[in-house]
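in:
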């Protein structure tokens, strides 16, 4: 990744500040903010930071922590997922209602060092919550941790879509679970139509994650848009899944783990609808 700028790069399972997701429940207990978090050291320089509301004697909390401890070595055998911090927070805010879980990866870079952090939010009282969803989110986010370390990383809408597609395929690779609802949200016809619509925007390069990029490109194409020119919900996730799926079908030896540092143009080369002729 080219670090000419001190830039915060965010790749989200849900976008924390997304105006398009309005059906989250807001609520946080500020009284616990001053209580020091619990820190658990993990393999290869990773650490798990638990917020003050997490009770390590609770059966659900124990299952979550044990699950993270067990799944991380499996992740690290496939991708160089080292030296990252996992912040685990109980919250009814920032969660995806279909899972009761939400997450994001942040990477803060300077000339001296870089810090990657995975933030996982969950509501154990949510009717859809399952510990499995936290582990799925963790696997997804760790692929982001690795990919944003790629030297030739460029911030484009194409990269955002492929990044999400790779992370969801990696989740399936590691956990042998089903495809996520957001990566299968569009019909075949919708995928074809929206590939045509989005193609002129895919390769516009952005130097940093700005409000303009977020509102004009990322939010509408990843999460959907209503109004006079609507975009179906989760379009970017579904297209990203399809782009990666096309590449994996054309290259049976490849895996999402082996593609973690592959340029977006290499991966999109198996999707004829999005290839740009030179």
């Amino acid at each position: 990744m080219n670090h000419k700028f001190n830039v915060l790069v965010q790749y989200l399972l849900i976008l924390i500040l997304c105006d398009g997701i309005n059906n989250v429940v807001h609520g946080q207990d500020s009284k616990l903010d001053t209580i020091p978090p619990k820190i658990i050291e993990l393999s290869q320089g990773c650490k798990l930071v638990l917020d003050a509301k997490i009770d390590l004697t609770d059966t659900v909390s124990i299952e979550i922590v044990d699950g993270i401890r067990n799944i991380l070595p499996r992740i690290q055998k496939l991708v160089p997922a080292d030296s990252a911090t996992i912040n685990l927070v109980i919250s009814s805010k920032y969660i995806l209602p279909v899972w009761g879980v939400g997450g994001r990866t942040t990477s803060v870079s300077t000339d001296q060092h870089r810090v990657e952090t995975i933030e996982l939010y969950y509501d154990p009282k949510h009717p859809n919550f399952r510990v499995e969803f936290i582990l799925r989110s963790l696997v997804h986010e760790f692929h982001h941790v690795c990919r944003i370390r790629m030297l030739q990383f460029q911030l484009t809408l194409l990269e955002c879509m492929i990044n999400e597609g790779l992370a969801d395929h990696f989740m399936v690779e590691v956990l042998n679970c089903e495809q996520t609802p957001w990566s299968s949200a569009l019909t075949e016809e919708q995928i074809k139509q929206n590939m045509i619509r989005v193609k002129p925007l895919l390769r516009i390069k952005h130097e940093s994650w700005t409000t303009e990029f977020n509102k004009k490109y990322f939010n509408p194409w990843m999460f959907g848009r209503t109004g006079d020119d609507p975009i179906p919900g989760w379009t970017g996730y579904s297209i990203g899944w399809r782009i990666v799926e096309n590449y994996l079908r054309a290259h049976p030896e490849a895996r999402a783990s082996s593609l973690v540092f592959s340029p977006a143009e290499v991966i999109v080369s198996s999707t004829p609808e999005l290839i740009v002729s030179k």
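note: The first strand starts at residue 8 and ends at 12.
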